[in-house]
Amino acid sequence: MLIIDSKDCENIDKALKKYKKKFEKSKTLLQLRARQSFTKPSVERRTQVLKAIYRQQMANGEFES
């Protein structure tokens, strides 16, 4: 549950902006999307390894398209 402390003189737009930032930082939407479908642990691990390899190649400058 997200709680936003708003002052009496604060604009509703500022409070909404604070809420949106707090919602994004809590990663609630990402969790909901991840729970929509089950992925096997082996598939998750494989995607993590492929992403790590890609990031390493980009950092070393070895990636060519």
From TrEMBL:
Keywords: Ribonucleoprotein, Ribosomal protein. GO terms for molecular function: structural constituent of ribosome. GO terms for cellular component: ribonucleoprotein complex; ribosome. GO terms for biological process: translation. This is Small ribosomal subunit protein bS21. It comes from the Bacteria. Belongs to the bacterial ribosomal protein bS21 family. The keyword Ribonucleoprotein applies. Gene3D superfamilies: Ribosomal protein S8. HAMAP family: Ribosomal_bS21. It comes from Segetibacter aerophilus.
